[in-house]
Structures are given as C-alpha cells and as structure tokens.
Amino acid sequence: MPLNADLIMFMLVAPALLSVGQDNGDLESYAKIFKTVLSQQDCTLDLHLRSMRDADHNLVQFLLTQQSSAVRVHMGQAVTVAALDASDDALHHFYIFEHVHRMQQQLKMFTNPGGFYILAIEAFAGEEQKSLQHFMEVVWRQLGHNRIYYVQLAGERVLLYNPFTESVVPAEDEHSFERIYSNLYGYPLRAYIFDSVYSALFGDGDTERVTRVTGPDAIAADTVAKHLNFTLNYIWPDDEFFGGRQPNGSYTGGVGRAHRYELDVIFAGFFIKDYLTARIQFSAAVYMDDLCLFVQKAKRIPQSIVPLFAVRVDVWLCFLLVGFACAFVWLCLRGLNLTLDIQCLPEHKHNAADERCISIGWRIFIDTWIVWVRVNVGKFPPYNSERIFLASLCLVSVIFGALLESSLATAYIRPLYYRDTNTLAELDDSNMPIYIKHPAFRDDLFYGHDSQVYRQLNSKMKLVGEGEDRLISMVSKLGGFAGVTRAASLELSDRRYIMTHKVHKIPECPKTYHIGYVLPNPSPYINGINNVLLHILAGGLLQHWISEMKERAQWSIHRYPEYLAELGVQNWKVLTLTDVQLAFYALTIGCILAAFVWCFEFLYK
Ligand SMILES: *[C@@H]1O[C@H](CO)[C@@H](O)[C@H](O)[C@H]1NC(C)=O
Ligand SMILES: *[C@@H]1O[C@H](CO)[C@@H](O)[C@H](O)[C@H]1NC(C)=O
Q1: How confident is the model at residue 348, as a pLDDT?
Q2: Residue 282 sits in the same domain as residue 334
Q3: Which domain, by its residues, includes 245?
Q4: Same domain for 164 and 265?
Q5: Ligand 2: which of 250, 251, 255, 259 to mutate, judged by most atoms within 8 Å of the beta carbon?
Q6: Closest ligand by atom to 250 CA
Q7: Mean of the pLDDT values across residues 216-226?
Q8: Whose CA is closest to 385, among 341, 325, 324, 334?
Q9: 180, 215, 243: which is the final residue of a domain?
C-alpha cells in the first residue's frame, strides 16, 4: 500500500503546489495560529477527510504542506470512535463537517489527547451560532477540555471557547488559547494540599472540609490563584498523602487523584521522579531537597572522664611523644657537649664533671618533663646550647598547654559526645536497620546503585506502619535504628530534636531531588501556573517564605518546655564537684601507688 499512499498524497498536495504564492493572503490568519500550535510538541497531525474533494479547501492544503509535524491522512472512512482508537499516538486531529449538527453527533470522539482538535465547519449559518456554543459547552462539561479550534470555512474565522466567561471568542493569533487561561474569572480550580514539609492543612475531619492551609506552598498557591484569577477549591486529602502505584495497578494518594483527573493541581511539593504513570506532570521545579538518614545522637561523655576527651587521641599521643623526643634531643646535646669538652658555664664548674652518666641522663629526663608540663625548672643546664634548646621547649609547651586548657574549659561548658555516625559507610558498619514509612523510599534511596555500601544499606530497609509515635521520636528515645526523612523537615518541625542533641543527621545524604507541584497530564493550566511560579522563583519569594518558616520553627521550641529546659542548661553551666572528679581520681591513684611503693620499700629495706 505505500504506493497508494504516496499517490494519494501527491494528488492531495498537487493543487497546493500549483497554487503556491497565489492565495497566501487568505491563509495568513490560519497559518499564524496553526503553525505554532502544531510545532509546540513533537507530534502527528491526523487529517480525517471525508473524500478527495475536501482537499480543495485552502485550510486542508495548508495543513498538508506545513512542515512542523508529521501528517497522516485518513480518507473516506466514516469518522468513528474506532478510527480514533487506531491512531492513539496522534496528538492533533483535524476533522471537517458539513454543519454543526453533524459535529454534535460525534461528540464522544473529542476526548482530550493532550493536543488540539481543529474542526472545520463548511456551512455555518447565523442561527447555528447558538448550537455551536452549546456544543462547546458540552465538550467542556462532559469531556473536560476546550482544546478545539473551530474553523468556519466560509467566513474564514477561527473560534475558541472560553469556559470561564462562557463565551465564544475569536482566535486572533497563536496565543489566543493561552490568553484564555491567563484569567480564569474566579473559576473554582480543584486544588489539593496536605500536611507536608512546606504545607499544612487545617479543617474538620468529620465533614471533610478544609478551613485553612498554611506554609510556603500554600502562599505560592494563593499567589498563583491571585494572578490567574481563580479560586482555590481545596479537596480533602486521602490518608495516603503522596501515594503512588499499588501492586494491583491502582494509584493512591495525590498521585492517584491526579492520575484519575479528579483534581486540577496539587500545591504540595512532590519529588520530580517517575511515579509510573504518564497521566501526571510536574510544574516548574520550585525547590530542592535531600533525602537524609538520621540516627540517635551518640551518648554524652560522662563528666568524670571528660578531660580525657577534651582533645583527640592524636593530640594526647603527640604530647607524650614530644616529651620523650625532647628528652632524647637534650640527652644528645649533653652527650655532644661532654665528648667535645665544651666549656660549661662558670657557676656549674665544680660539679659538671663528677656526676655519673646515668644520673645526668635521669636528671635531664625529669627536667624535660618538668618544662613540658610547665613547672619551673629548678636548675638551669650548664651549657648555652642546652639553655637555648630549653627556651624553645618552653614555647612549645606554652602552646600545647594553652590548647589543652582551652579545650578542657570548653569541654566542661559544652557537653561532649562520643563519635557520631557521619558517613553511610559507618552506618553500614553499625548494622542498624533502616526504618521507612513511605513505600516509595524503598526504590528511591539506595536502589539500583552499584556501590557495595548502597546495596547493603538497601537490604537493611524495613517498611514500618504509621504507629502512634513518630519515627523520629522513636529514634530519639530508643535508638538502635536509622530513619529516613527530608532534610528540610529536620530544619522545620523536627528541629527541636537536632537542637537538643537527641537525633543526629548523617551529613552524607544519599539522594537529592528537585521538587515541583503536580498537575494531571494534559492540563491546560500548566503554562499559566508555570508562568506565575517562575516569576515567584525569579523574585526569590519562595526562598524567602521558606526561610521565614525555618525561622519560625526555630522559635517554636518555646512551645516545648522540656526541650527548652535542656537548651537553657547548655547555655549557662555552673561547674560542680562532679566536674572535677577526674582530678580526685588521679590524686587517689597517685596516693595508692605511693602507698604501695612505701610498703615495698619498708618491707625490703
Ligand atoms: C477576576 O474574576 C472576577 C470574577 O470572579 C472578575 O469580576 C474580575 O474582573 C476578574 N479580574 C480580572 C483582573 O480580570
Ligand atoms: C487495589 O488494591 C487496593 C488496596 O491495596 C484496593 O483499595 C483497590 O480497590 C485495588 N484496585 C483494584 C483495581 O483492584
């Protein structure tokens, strides 16, 4: 059949080719409108012609020769619903009718494919204006869209239906359709919002009536509504907020509502990702967020041994090592001084020579440590070189001492904790299970990654039901497992857990997402909404609302007296006896050792 098809195509287009340049003037208005409409998406235009004769119309000729989309011609077939099903992938359709009445009989055919219909009407008498408008209204009410350009072939007029003013408007240029959706004249849009990170909903659960919505998302919704002049008709949310695809193929939550076209827009931020349905779409991305894991904060280091943890182990080791090293350097110096018979300082003359090597060595070792811990050295060494060395040693000891002392002071004032889990690899090593509440996390967080750590973490995830206690409060009280949440919620409602060191967020977050609002696909509102949203974003308003909310969250700790008390304790600390425990322990140990040594000496001497 390809030959046939080519032949038909040629016969159809031939008149157009012959008449190029003749009557372009007439086509001006069609051309401008349909060129942009057809070039908007990568798509196919289905031309449904009744017979060859239809191809004589200027409009049909124009559509056949336009270059922006592929054209498929259906000829002669009775235009039926069956024909439509066969060409599912086509976005735009063209039909030609004798009169409005004929069109009305085919009503069922004009479902919303996401593209446009171009309906050409040959005979159009004045009295048909009424029935045309009626037809437009019915399409809007029953099929839920108005993506139809009505072309009066005789008058060469293109008409559109404006459902918000309930009137027929002439399409003057390619932006006419968008213009209809830039002012909705108070039309009640079915909006959806639920308690999420940046939104909260208040209302009566029994009557399922929404009274108030708050949060940056809700403010954005209000702003969009004001600019597009629609009213927000909030629908009571399902129990499952975000929702998704069920194993049996049905959809729940907001995704399900949008998938079934039960609403017009969801003003709660969704991660922009695949929800396994092509019947929803996202608005422009409005912000970003990370998915992070949190664990119980590590235990506090007990006051009794806090000084040991004031600096890290390597500093302690360095302190000890330098002590020994310096003693060694001093010994070398003395050795050199003695073997090379360097002149010693006058006041030491009498005894420099007659001491034994061992006792000199011991003396030097002790003196080094005396200087090292910043006690005055009793007797200065008898050589200049050694004195200079000693001076440098003093300086180092001052620096070390200052470091130790200041760390100790802060350790007493600010509580110290054992080491927290700071990377995913450490979390993996700790063998903690990861509890999740949203099933979506299961194939979101670690899935499909080739890193070993991710695969192991993936296998540790466990879905838990929504208990009466929140996951984060369970983590803070019980510990022993990790939770997953959005980074922003740890800065907002759950900030008190972080502020009072109950919960620790692992700084390495496995996923970052763009977040957008959700609309059904196709939706005529998307361009208008995106337009306003992008203006809001360009002005930095959403960011402003978000930081305002974070600021409020920080103040809100005043609503939790038990947390507030804990914060207060940390700001002003009065040192007590318990804080100096370690000193007494050291003293006790010293006393006991001394007693042992005394006993030993008493018995064996
Ligand atoms: C917004 O819609 C109302 C009807 O609800 C209408 O009266 C008003 O003129 C519209 N505003 C604009 C700017 O068109
Ligand atoms: C799919 O399962 C859910 C419960 O998980 C049920 O509510 C829904 O009716 C089911 N849908 C179909 C089409 O079976």
Answers
A1: 64
A2: no
A3: 187-286
A4: no
A5: 250
A6: 2
A7: 96
A8: 334
A9: 180
The Å distance, Cα 165 to ligand 1 centre, comes to 10
3-state class (DSSP) for residue 265: strand
Which band of pLDDT confidence, cut at 50, 70 and 90, is reported for residue 14?
low
Same domain, 35 and 71: yes
CA 250 to ligand 2 center in whole angstroms: 6
Sequence-distant (≥ 6) Cβ neighbours of residue 60 within 8 angstroms = 12, 47, 49, 54, 94, 96, 120
Compute CA distances 357 → 334, 346, 353, whole Å: 10, 21, 10
Shared-domain flag, residues 323 and 238? no
CA 300/CA 297 separation, integer angstroms: 9
Ligand nearest to the CA of 249: 2
Determine which residue's CA is closest to atom 5 belonging to ligand 1. Answer: 186
Closest ligand to the CA of 179: 1
248 CA → ligand 1 middle, Å: 45
Whole-prediction pTM: 0.79
Ligand 2: lining residues by beta carbon, under 6 Å: 246, 248, 250
Mutate which of 183, 184, 230, 231 to test ligand 1's pocket (most atoms within 8 Å of Cβ)?
183
Same domain, 44 and 14: yes
How many angstroms does the Cα of residue 275 sit away from the middle of ligand 2?
Answer: 17
Supply the pLDDT for residue 280.
94
Residue 22 has pLDDT above 60, yes or no: no
Minimum mean pLDDT among 38-42, 180-184, 403-407, 426-430: which range? 38-42
Q: Which ligand 1 atom sits closest to the C-alpha of 185? A: 2
Whether 530 is in a domain gets the answer: no
Q: What are phi and psi of 365, to 5 degrees?
A: -60, -45
Q: What is the pLDDT of residues 310-343, one digit of tens each?
A: 888 888 899 889 889 988 998 898 888 888 888 7
pLDDT of residue 412: 78
Q: Token digits for 583?
A: 């000193």
Distance 279 CA to ligand 2 centre (A): 19
Tell me, letter by letter, the H, E, C secondary structure of 464-520: CCCCCCCHHHHHHHCCCCEEEEEHHHHHCCCHHHHHCCCEEECCCCCEEEEEEEEEE
Which residues approach ligand 1 with their CB closer than 6 A? 183, 185-186, 229
Rg of the chain over Cα atoms, rounded to whole angstroms, equals 41
Q: How far is the CA of 260 from the centre of ligand 2 (A)?
A: 14
**What confidence score (pLDDT) does residue 143 get?**
87
Asked whether residue 533 is domain-assigned, the answer is no
* pLDDT band (50, 70, 90) for residue 20: very low
Tally of domains in the chain: 4
